[in-house]
Amino acid sequence: MPKTSYLNKTFKSTHYNNVRPSYPQSLVNEVLKFHKCPRKCLVDIGCGTGKATFLFEPYFEEVIGIDPSSAMLSIAEKETTERKLGHKIRFINTLGEELSSIEPGTVDMVISAEAIHWCNLERLFQQLFFILRPNGTFAFWFYVQPEFVDFAPEALNVYYKYAWGKDYMGQYLDDKQKEILLNNGGEKLRSLLSERFKNIEVEIYNPSDKDASAASVEKNQFIWKETITLAQFKQFVKSWSIYSSWMRDHPSEPDIADIFVNKLKEVCHCENLDKPLNVEWSTFYFLCRKKD
User: Fold this and answer.
1) Contact predicate 42/111, CB 8 Å
2) CATH topology assigned to domain 5-145+174-225+281-290
3) Which of 25, 75, 125, 232 has the fewest CB atoms within 10 Å, counting from its CB?
4) 174-202 pLDDT, tens per residue?
5) 94 — phi, psi (to 5°)?
6) Which GO biological-process labels does this protein carry (predicted)?
7) Strand locations in 191-271, DSSP E?
């Protein structure tokens, strides 16, 4: 697993939980519609604080959240207790690709939200194949980046520089992770997935390429548009693992989130950080079933 600040005990998991976006009910419905097995057991890989876990919980008898971050799981466990769901949700503090504690062939659905880029994909897909029932569902998805659509491409160029560029926070993502995030999964992921899974469906939404996205707009259930301020966006940046890693390694330098947001403020012609800005997220999701 690539190094991530999410595993640090000092990582601010409460802040992460408060500012990270959730996922639309339309996506949940689409995954459930695709699913052809019973709804007894669901596993959430890289569940973090449980944002996706709790969205799918009402539809299954048993839910298991997997995450290597004890700090993240503490938030999820607290919410489980508050919701009185301890009888049906449990969490395992381990890597997403270490699933030996789950009995083979007992899981109906596996989901993963914004997480598998941290995993060894070959090992992960092998483990999922073991724990899933025949024809069991594997669904995973990513929101890649918010695009300030009224100020493209200038705002997008700023985003790429600070979030993906090797001179800034992008240095804390390896090539495999960037391939997954920036190429809608990438060829390697698709090749490995097809070895063990069938009926693979992929939906992509790219605000910067309306023509390419137009064909699937009616079917795509993960189109996400909203209005945010740069103040809100800055808090989102501060929830990133790569932000925490940068700040750890550059303690005497100005806050990279301030530099990033001030540059966006300039290209978006904002007098302050409280101006509402239209955002569309680039997203993609995969749906597939275990091969016979």
Assistant:
1) yes
2) Rossmann fold (3.40.50)
3) 25
4) 999 999 999 999 999 999 999 999 999 99
5) -160, 170
6) methylation
7) 197-205, 225-228
Helices (H), 132-203: 154-159, 175-182, 186-196
134 is written with which tokens?
């025949």
CA nearest neighbour of 128 among 31, 27, 1, 41? 41
Name the burial class of residue 82, with classes exposed (0-12), middle (13-18) and buried (19+) by CB atoms within 10 angstroms of its CB.
Answer: exposed
Burial category of 237 from C-beta neighbours within 10 Å (exposed 0-12, middle 13-18, buried 19 and up)? buried
Taking the model in full, what pTM does it have?
0.92
Residue 107 bridge partners (DSSP): 132
pLDDT tens by residue, 40-92: 999 999 999 999 999 999 999 999 999 999 999 999 999 999 999 999 999 99
- Round to whole Å and give the CA distance between 31 and 29: 5
- Let me know: does 110 contact 138? Beta carbons within 8 Å: yes
Joined together, the tokens standing for residue 266 give 């300039």
> Facing residues of 139 across strands?
111, 287
| Token code pair at residue 136 | 């069991």
